[in-house]
Amino acid sequence: MIKALSKKVVATAVLAASVALVSAQASAGDWKGWNIHVKDYPVSIGMEKFIELAAKKTDGRVGGKVYHGGVLGSQSDAISQMQLGGVDFAEFNLGPLGIAVPEVNVVSLPFIFKDMDHMHRVMDGAVGEKLSAAMAKAGIIALSWYDSGARSFYNNSGVVIKTPADVKGLKFRVMNNELFVGMVEALGGNATPMAFSEVYQSLKTGVVDGAENNWPSYESTNHYDVAGNYSGTQHLILPECLCVSIRAWDALSSEDKKSVKEAAVESAKLQRVLWAERSAQSKAKVLKAGVKYNEIKDKSEFQAAMAPVYAMAVKKNPALKELIAAIQAVD
Ligand code: BDP
Q: What is the pTM of this model?
């Protein structure tokens, strides 16, 4: 009896404390924004634009600060923080987000998108809406989709990857999602999920032989200094999202919601332009610095090798079958 009572007292105290915490965080003028990238990155400039426009359009009722460079933790930490209320807005790569929102895994299937334009058509259409709805159920409101190009493999072992056989025996860092581990294993390599911030050191010390990313991240993190062979597999075209927590969103009036959504869409337009520019600049910069790059024109062997990854994903979550078909049906 005494035990039961004290449990109840503790529970009430915890509830009171969390209510206090929530109301402290509900102030829309003081949103905390998570970002993994350095300050001059297209994502970062897009996020700054978003919060500036949101403030302007809501007469200052919405405002906040973006914490760049992953100082608030890894993306996995930030996803939980967003669900718990510690982070109000963020820019997430949809790859690791698939752990929190299984439907989102569809975009992490290698070669699911034909190219960047196809990805835009899909994400700006009905599939994008379905994924947003699934994310909202997990407490994450996707306001707009940002670009992150195509990801390719690079390594520090002098290997020029031209066919899947070249991947054999190499150990790659991947983002946190078992689909990416399966992807590398399907090519005959090994994979270790690891936070973005740890990759440079791991490449430098040989903990991994390589990693995979787009040109701007390969350049902005200096990975090109320690892994100078970049092979254009372009196996993943992953969208990213500008998101707010459902808690922060629900605290807004419907008029402010509209303004915040507009700010996010406008910021995405800017981000996509900056993205294209930065991709060209980053590529030129690393090539000038001596990176050995090989284009892979015919990617069909890589694509064919991905069948087990699709099978694994659908087995785990049969609902993906319909989403895969929906993406493939978009021209
Ligand atoms: C970059 C994404 C970023 C990821 C990072 C990674 O923009 O969100 O955290 O790759 O590889 O391209 O972890």
A: 0.92
Mutate to test the pocket of ligand 1, among 146, 196, 219 (most ligand atoms within 8 A of CB): 196
Q: How far is the CA of 287 from the centre of ligand 1 (A)?
A: 21
CA atoms of 180 and 15, how far apart (whole Å): 39
Find the residues whose C-beta lies inside 6 A of ligand 1. Answer: 36, 75, 93, 148, 175, 196, 213-214, 217, 240
Q: Could you tell me where the beta strands, DSSP code E, fall in the chain?
A: 31-34, 64-67, 89-93, 140-146, 150-155, 171-174, 190-193, 210-213, 229-237, 240-245, 292-295
State the fold for domain 150-237+291-328.
D-Maltodextrin-Binding Protein; domain 2 (3.40.190)
For ligand 1, the distance from its centroid to the CA atom of residue 58, given in whole angstroms, is: 31
Q: pLDDT tens digit string along 213-223?
A: 999 999 999 99
Using DSSP bridges, classify how beta strands 89-93 and 140-146 pair: parallel, antiparallel or unpaired: unpaired
Give the residues across from 32 on adjacent strands: 65
Task: Indicate the fold that domain 32-98+110-147+238-279 takes in CATH.
Answer: D-Maltodextrin-Binding Protein; domain 2 (3.40.190)
